[in-house]
Write a structure and sequence with these properties.
Blueprint lengths: L10 H9 L5 H9 L32 E3 L2 E3 L8 E9 L2 E8 L2 E3 L13 E3 L4 E7 L9 E8 L4 E12 L6 E2 L4 E5 L13 E8 L4 H8 L14 E3 L2 H10 L5 H8 L4 E6 L4 H5 L15 E6 L5 E7 L7 E5 L14 E2 L6 E2 L1 H10 L4
Antiparallel strand pairs: 1-2, 3-4, 5-12, 6-11, 7-8, 7-10, 8-9, 9-11, 9-12, 12-13, 14-15, 14-17, 15-16, 18-19
Length: 360
């Protein structure tokens, strides 16, 4: 997730819908301990480029320009999901410290001038919640956001750097329906590197506007769909897993593909994020009246588990980290720092925990 805001209209409907989900803890406990039946994902590829399933993924991902020892290179790996950019030599070797929250899909078709002709399709059934047609308002240029309901909480696919959009906010779309045309709008992209950037996100907070005003003097043009309020899961691996196992759910995918890198204990009795994503709950019966909550995260910052705790604390604190010989900040998008089995939240990490836990 780059430091860029993202527009949304239809936001008030979404905020109202999710803000109403505020049951008492007893009701929440009943909800979270009941069986959760996730709906089918029904995923399709967002363009006709299907090389992600081939033996040559370089034909799927758009490269990034990278200079190594004064030599310009164009590695396709820079278009993949994960820590794939900004290389740095460390005590454990070469690591890539910049996290890329989605995938950059290269065009299959171009016109005689080199402009991409590929049309973008919705990856699943859903509803369009935003169409940004003012490219200067976001590093992502023109983009579309679609809300998907799979009975496990709200997920949002995002399609960026578009030439034009074919849909409007509030419009229902089917998997495979054409929603836009590929382009090269947004920051740091030219015609040669035309691509569509695709993400599949969870939303961190419905109170994002307040949080943003606390930390930034610049205007937030894009409401709750600002990029800082979205956290993307590994869409590339999900697409491949779904192809092999069409009935796979988001909880099953995350449980089988992600590793806990660190945990953070956060003060508070309530947990709005868990109400939105109840599949993350663990050991709810262990604490009758929580005084804090322990979040378990992948290195990317994607939340994997949330547990209640009876510990009284005044501020968020790291309770576990996967040991490493280098600085944890290189491996966690700068959210925690330290080395070995010792870690603490950075300023960025503290803001992230504040946002995801509504502790502001």
């Amino acid at each position: 997730m780059p430091n860029t805001d993202r527009c949304v209209t239809g936001e008030s409907h979404l905020v109202s819908h999710y803000s109403d989900m505020r049951p008492a803890f007893a009701a929440l406990l009943f909800l979270l301990t009941s069986p959760l039946f996730a709906g089918p994902l029904g995923l399709v590829l967002p363009t006709e480029n299907d090389a992600i399933f081939s033996e040559d993924p370089s034909q799927f991902y758009m490269y990034t320009n990278r200079t190594v020892d004064g030599v310009l290179t164009k590695p396709w790996q820079g278009g993949t999901y994960g820590f794939s950019r900004n290389q740095r030599q460390t005590s454990i070797g070469l690591v890539y410290t910049r996290f890329h929250e989605g995938v950059d899909i290269r065009p299959v078709n171009r016109d005689s001038s080199g402009n991409p002709l590929d049309e973008i399709k919705s990856m699943a059934d859903g509803q369009v919640v935003h169409v940004n047609s003012t490219s200067r308002h976001s590093n992502y240029g023109n983009y579309v956001v679609v809300h998907h309901d799979w009975d496990v909480g709200p997920f949002f696919s995002l399609y960026a750097h578009l030439s034009e959009a074919y849909v409007k906010p509030g419009q229902n779309v089917r998997a495979g329906e054409k929603i836009a045309k590929m382009g090269y709008t947004g920051a740091g992209i030219d015609r040669e590197r035309s691509h569509v950037h695709v993400e599949l996100n969870m939303i961190l907070s419905n109170n994002f506007n307040k949080w943003h005003d606390m930390h930034f003097t610049s205007a937030n043009h894009h409401g709750i769909f600002n990029g800082l309020n979205l956290i993307g899961i590994n869409i590339a691996e999900l697409l491949k897993a779904h192809r092999q196992y069409p009935d796979i759910s988001i909880p099953q995918f995350l449980a089988g593909s992600e590793e806990v890198y660190y945990k953070v204990l956060v003060p508070g009795e309530n947990n709005n994020f868990l109400r939105r994503y109840p599949f993350l709950a663990r050991d709810l019966n262990s604490v009758r009246k929580p005084k804090s909550w322990e979040y378990a995260f992948a290195a990317s910052g994607v939340p994997l588990e949330i547990r209640p705790s009876d510990k009284e604390i005044s501020y968020p604190a790291v309770t576990y980290v996967k040991p490493t010989k280098t600085d944890h900040s290189y491996l966690t998008n700068g959210r925690i720092t330290g080395s070995g089995s010792s870690a603490k939240l950075t300023a960025s990490g503290s803001r992230y925990m504040q946002l995801i836990s509504d502790s502001f």
